Amino acid sequence: MTASLDSETLQQYLADSPPTIVPLAIEPHFDALTDDERRYAHHLSRACFAGTRIVLRQVSPESEPIYDFIVALHKHANGDYAALAKEAGLAQEELDAYLDYSAQFLGNLGNYKSFGDSKFIPRVEPRQLKALATVSNATLAIYDKFKDAIYAGHDVAKLHLGYPGAGHISTYYPDSPDITSAEIARVSDFLEGKGLLPENTRIRKTSDGYEVLIASALEDPSAEQRDLKEREWTLDNDSKVKLVFGDHSKEMHTIAYHIEQAKKYAANKHEVEMMEEYSKSFITGSLEAFKRSQKAWVQDKGPQVESDIGFIETYRDPHGIRGEWEGFVAMVNQERTRAFGKLVETAPQYIPLLPWDSSFEKDKFLSPDFTSLEVLTFAGSGIPAGINIPNYDDIRQNFGFKNVSLGNILSAKAPNESIPFIKERDLATYQKYRDPAFEVQVGLHELLGHGCGKLLQETEPGVFNFDKEHPPISPLTGQPISTWYKPGQTWGSTFGTIAASYEECRAECVAMALSCEFPILKLFGFGDGTVDVNGEAGDVLFTAYLQMARAGIAALEFWDPKSKKWGQAHMQARFSILRTFLNAGVEFCQLEWEKDDLSDLTIRLERDRILDLGRPAVDDYLQKLHIYKATADVAAAKNMYDEITSVEPFYENMVRPAVLKKKMPRKVFVQANTVEKDGKVRLVEYEATNKGIIQSFADREYV
């Protein structure tokens, strides 16, 4: 396929064959909505999916033309791929390789994995792909735009998302191959100093400086509509910084139109306000308006149709501050939500069980809305199992936040899924309890993990949110704290590139610690609240720990031996937790194998030592994670986190190859569409096949 990479290296970048395609089942939950709720859901779904091209543009330069090619070829063939193969002269397996790639591409909305940020390349040979392209002038013209970029090329660095200056790909910095991380930091820090939020921006390097591209329908919003009155500055090295509006202008117009339509069917004043502020934000590029939408969203408690939309998560920007477009629309699962509601009510009694005192905790736990949702629409590069947003600390601290668990994502399974690294003796328990254990873990992770903790801050010069004269005593040193956040510093700006993974790790550890509390397991329907590691609640606890250890091994797929870099925030976190389990001693947890190639690698985890060895080890690690975060001690945090997530030769040369041999393709979800017909909104579902997912995208004419 390409002579430039050795075949062994190339193998890990080939598209899944076949990808695991699962349906996102939603019909009964959609059918239960009223007509107005369906219309509200319909227009919000359109607004979400209308950002599809934004996501593609945020991945790689070639992603948008590849998308156009897949859709154009499907329409040319009217979905008849057997006839298309005949027309192009392809054998069945060559056509299947193309369809497998297309499905995985659409599932990730781009040609880099949403979970891992590494490129995947078609198994179909270049000449067969060209043969497919030549069936029409339109497809051939599109093919010419990406033909040189779809395969592996000569440069391994370009197979990973990251800083362009380090040789990686990032279209958060378009047409700027030589922009360095120092330049990105300089411009970003300058704009932070001006008070401009970065989530909906990209940066382009120009001959005389930098253009900051802002996503907005308007290309020239008025000074009143903008977050900053000024638009141009000169830095001290004479380079210019200029704000350029109208990035993704066409898409932002479509999104704003459907937001305005959805507003007509809003159920309450919070939803009306939310739609109004969304509309302002997407039309003018104002992230202050977006923040107001999030305040309204947080106050919209327990709606039938839940939705959030915008430039949200910052995992894929190598600088860790620019957000990827995403949006979801979902229906509430009342029964599952009740268990989460009980957890929310009792949260204040469990937070004091975490390994720090009240001076490192919010004065009052802001009781969030915690719902279990069934997803109708999730537009973006991937779908998580749970969400805790908004990501703005001032909103979280003062207004609260929402937690959602995505039920039909959690329960979606491929038939005959194999489960490597689990011992035969533990397999039946693991299979029976992995869904409940994961639901408990997601609940604790999102609600108490991300929801707990205080940032000790000098909020403005001379004003502190703690007693400066008698500072809190650090449990790590026994001494008064000596570091905190200075005015204008945020958690993200201070911790930079490690922030996302570090915070996921802290939340995961909170979940691991508190899943040992049997009264919490009782809230989810397991046990009677008394300690019993051998009863059903113990089965859930044991499975939660085993699941985390297994995730820590599987995480090595997402570590790149060439760049020595982790490609996925959650997986880096889970690897560090596996190391924490192993450091607790062989009496608690050990990796075991007999074969030299580790092909029979399994985890031995002793259920009766979770409470006296496992949890104390987690508590010790969690305490450091938390105190370093609370006190802005980035040097100590980075030192610890880099060390525990470094991949030693044993893991690199022995465990990782065994993991790669057993890796399972990530799930690709086929999502339904909604259409207006005869004055009603109807659901259109698709079969869980390559062709089904392509059809679902081809039907979105508005994208």
From TrEMBL:
GO terms for molecular function: aminopeptidase activity; dipeptidyl-peptidase activity; metal ion binding; metalloexopeptidase activity. Zn(2+) binds at H445, H450, E504. The active site is at E446. One of its GO terms (biological process) is proteolysis. GO terms for cellular component: cytoplasm. Its cofactor is Zn(2+). Keywords: Aminopeptidase, Cytoplasm, Hydrolase, Metal-binding, Metalloprotease, Protease, Zinc. Its EC number is 3.4.14.4. Gene3D superfamilies: 3.30.540.30, 3.30.70.2600. Its main location: cytoplasm. It catalyses: Release of an N-terminal dipeptide from a peptide comprising four or more residues, with broad specificity. Also acts on dipeptidyl 2-naphthylamides. It is an enzyme of class 3 (hydrolase). It is found in: Cytoplasm. InterPro entries: Dipeptidyl-peptase3 (IPR005317), Peptidase_M49 (IPR039461). Pfam families: Peptidase_M49. Binds 1 zinc ion per subunit. It comes from the Eukaryota. Belongs to the peptidase M49 family. This is Dipeptidyl peptidase 3.
